[in-house]
UniProtKB/TrEMBL annotation:
Residue ranges of domain CobB/CobQ-like glutamine amidotransferase in the record: 252-454
GO molecular function, one term: ABC-type vitamin B12 transporter activity
Recorded name of the encoding gene: cobQ
Protein name: Cobyric acid synthase
Taxonomic path: Bacteria, Bacillati, Bacillota, Clostridia, Eubacteriales
Keyword Nucleotidyltransferase: no
Length: 511
């Protein structure tokens, strides 16, 4: 069985995911077979494996760091919030129900066998398992229900724990000391090291605080890790990407930050291109006059469509479309661009809703979820983005609605239908057509379509031509190669700031 080490945090977004990913990379570089594991992940960014199973993208990123294909065993339970009080519960990659928080806590103990089975199976195939916790292990209202999230999982895996605090938000000494103080005695003994994360400046000025923290907690501080400027996929709505203020650039792309935005990692490839600004906007004032607008995926298409309508962004998008600005909708964003949505089974809000009316398609939600990896080719494309024609891609689909073309014509007042956007080959299935295009409005269900540097380069060239500017200096790169370089930089930064000798001692000794 593999040896285990667990990363827990004093709060959400303390840096657990990146630290776990960095350790996966380091252990792999040092010659070990290593796999990530997170028993329960709550996130709207998800991925479809080759088996057609759904898992959180944070564990996908960690698997890539470990040199492994994503495996649903790495994240046996995924919670995808559908509202402020309920989540879709996905176990071993498949939806089992949508539950309120109260109902899920009652049901949670029944999932312990699934967690144990997934973990033990991975542990039999690897030398090291890097486990990631969720939130904080000291939340008083959640501790009694921690069957397998933080200390509950550490006990299942007999894993030592490294506790991480975020100094960038302030109060890191209180975070770490307070968290350890609120743990039960047997839990506190499992914490073998403390990490101060996201530090900027000369870390020697922390020495007095570190000494006092070690004296009070009786736990060594094994590292002060720096705030690293890396372009690595994030997993939740606290993502710093949303807050970035882009400098003036040759081209400007605006992504609508929907309340339940999902799979915003789709747009990461654009953020590595110098001269291109990718902004997440929440209101008309922020939208301004971008060169292209993207409507992203969402876990609640009908609810977020209502939000779009109420805050004025719908009118602003329609005005931009009328002026010829390219609009792209991905998954839920594609559904919004159609003429209407119908939810007869209350998969989301129930009832019907009017779409933006920019594409002549109508979406009907069902209880079955489409989950598949895909590859294919973009059809002949009209409008500004014509250079996309014939380009190939790989990606995945994950949606609970089907969008079908509607009869159109002048008498109906609907946009005229030109053609599907892509021809795709779903893994294990026949070739089908996907998406729609009409003028400069384009929609598709394919997540990951922008990972192709050929596609991003074509979009940049076409937007530049439409704007009358030279974009030849805006170089794209192979996104997979770029990600690998970022993973190596993460590992290098952690090797320099963590006491890796101590980490290996903790791993070897266990609890």
């Amino acid at each position: 069985m593999a040896k285990a080490i667990m990363i827990q945090g004093t709060m959400s977004n303390a840096g657990k995911s990146l630290l776990a990913a960095g350790l996966c990379r380091i252990f792999r570089q040092d010659g070990y077979r290593v796999a990530p594991f997170k028993a329960q992940n709550m996130a709207l960014n998800s991925y479809i494996t080759k088996d057609g199973l759904e898992m959180g993208r944070a564990q996908v990123m960690q698997a890539e760091c470990a040199g492994l294909a994503p495996d649903v065993r790495m994240n046996p339970i995924l919670l995808k919030p559908t509202s402020d009080v309920g989540s879709q519960v996905i176990v071993n990659g498949e939806v089992i129900a949508t539950m309120s928080a109260r109902d899920y806590f009652k049901y949670k103990p029944e999932l312990i066998p699934a967690v144990r089975s997934a973990y033990n199976s991975l542990a039999q195939e690897n030398d090291i398992i890097v486990i990631e916790g969720a939130g904080s292990p000291a939340e008083i209202n959640l501790k009694n229900d921690d069957c397998f999230v933080n200390m509950g999982m550490a006990k299942i895996a007999s894993s030592p724990v490294l506790l991480v605090g975020d100094i960038d938000r302030g109060g890191v000494f209180a975070q770490l000391y307070g968290t350890t103080a609120l743990l039960d005695d047997d839990e506190r003994t499992m914490v073998k090291g403390l990490i101060i994360n996201k530090f900027r400046g000369d870390k020697t000025i922390l020495d007095p605080g570190v000494e006092m923290l070690e004296a009070r907690c009786h736990i060594p501080v094994i590292g002060v890790t720096p705030y690293m400027q890396l372009d690595i996929e994030d997993e939740d709505s606290l993502s710093e990407r949303f807050e970035r203020k882009s400098a003036a650039a040759l081209l400007d792309i605006a992504v609508i930050r929907l309340p339940r935005i999902s799979n915003f990692t789709d747009f990461n490839p654009f953020q590595s291109i110098e001269g291109l600004s990718l902004r997440y906007v929440t209101n008309v004032r922020e939208l301004k006059n971008p060169d292209m607008i993207i409507l992203p995926g969402t876990k609640n298409t009908m609810g977020d469509l209502l939000w779009l309508r109420q805050n004025g962004l719908e009118a602003a998008i329609l005005k931009a479309a009328a002026a010829g600005t390219p609009i792209i909708g991905i998954c839920g964003g594609f559904q919004m661009l159609g003429t209407g949505l119908s939810d007869p089974f209350h998969t989301e809000e129930g009832g019907t809703a009017r779409g933006l009316g920019l594409l002549p398609v109508k979406t009907t939600f069902s209880t079955a979820k489409t989950r598949t990896q895909t590859k294919g080719r973009i059809q002949k494309v009209g409008g500004i983005l014509h250079s996309l024609s014939g380009l190939s891609f790989e990606g995945y689909e994950i949606h609970m609605g089907q969008s079908m073309p509607e009869p159109s014509g002048r008498s109906t007042g609907k946009p005229s239908f030109s053609a599907p956007l892509t021809e795709i080959n779903r893994i294990g299935n026949e070739t089908v057509f996907d998406g729609a295009q009409c003028g400069n409005v384009y929609g598709t269900y394919i997540h990951g379509i922008f990972d192709s540097d050929e596609i991003t380069a074509a979009i940049i060239a076409d937007l530049g031509a439409a704007k009358g500017i030279d974009t030849s200096g805006m170089k794209t790169t192979d996104y997979q190669t770029f990600k690998e370089s970022q993973f190596d930089l993460l590992a290098e930064g952690l090797r320099e700031s963590l006491d890796m000798k101590k980490v290996y001692e903790i791993l070897e000794k266990g609890i």
